[in-house]
Amino acid sequence: MRTLYHLWLSPFSRKVRLVLAEKQVEFTMTVEPVWERRREFLALNPAGDVPVLVETDGTVLSHSAAICEYLEETHPDPRLIGRAPVERAEVRRLVGWFDTKFDREVTDRLVTEKVMKRFLGLGEPDSRQIRTALQDLTTHLNYIDYLCERRDWLAGDNLSLADIAAAAHLSAVDYLGDIPWEQHQPAHNRSARIKSRPSFRPLLADAIPGLPAPRHYADLDF
């Protein structure tokens, strides 16, 4: 059985989990405490981060973009990166938006300040960082609203890796209770649509020790 090394609130791990589930590829998961820098894990991925996917034949894959491209080539049904060159370009642009810009400005800041500092004993959360992240979150939600009002899915007519990347980041932030859904109805409706998919159900069941999700998190009709 293939194994995915992950962390609960890693949006990159969540992205790979969703892709595996959408493509109906069976896998098991192992939580990897990356801060421990385990020698056995570093042998799999010298970068020391998650996700890492170990295939049934022992092949080791790391970095979410590389893993998702690999899965698209080895399990092409359903297509998640588009068929035409212009479609693939737009999907990759939006995946890059969420995995780079959204992560830097929102996800990483909030997860670091609200979760990782406590786990690592790095002191109290920095309220300035949290406030800045929440301000940036509003800007991103406005852009998501804009896309949702003009397209069936974020990158076009079909569900794609762009929707999955967005859902991965938004779900991590939503677990912390930081998304003002009532102020962003188009983004809310699209999120509800994603949450209702079978691939998303395992994420709704995530339970981080000592950090329960808000009541609406697992509610499909939130």
Provide an overview of this structure.
This protein is α+β, with helices and mostly antiparallel strands and 222 residues long. It has a domain at 85-197: Glutathione S-transferase Yfyf (Class Pi), Chain A, domain 2 (Up-down Bundle). It contains eight helices and four strands. The chain has helices at 11-22, 39-44, 64-74, 85-120, 127-150, 161-175, 185-195, 201-204; strands at residues 3-6, 28-31, 52-54, 60-62. Helix 1 (11-22) links the parallel strand 1 and strand 2 (28-31). The model has no long low-confidence stretch (mean pLDDT 95).
Question: What brief labels describe this structure?
Answer:
alpha+beta; Glutathione S-transferase Yfyf (Class Pi), Chain A, domain 2; 8 helices
Question: Outline of this structure?
Answer:
By secondary structure, the chain is of the alpha+beta class. It has helices at 11-22, 39-44, 64-74, 85-120, 127-150, 161-175, 185-195, 201-204, and strands at residues 3-6, 28-31, 52-54, 60-62. A hairpin with a 5-residue loop joins strand 3 and strand 4 (60-62).
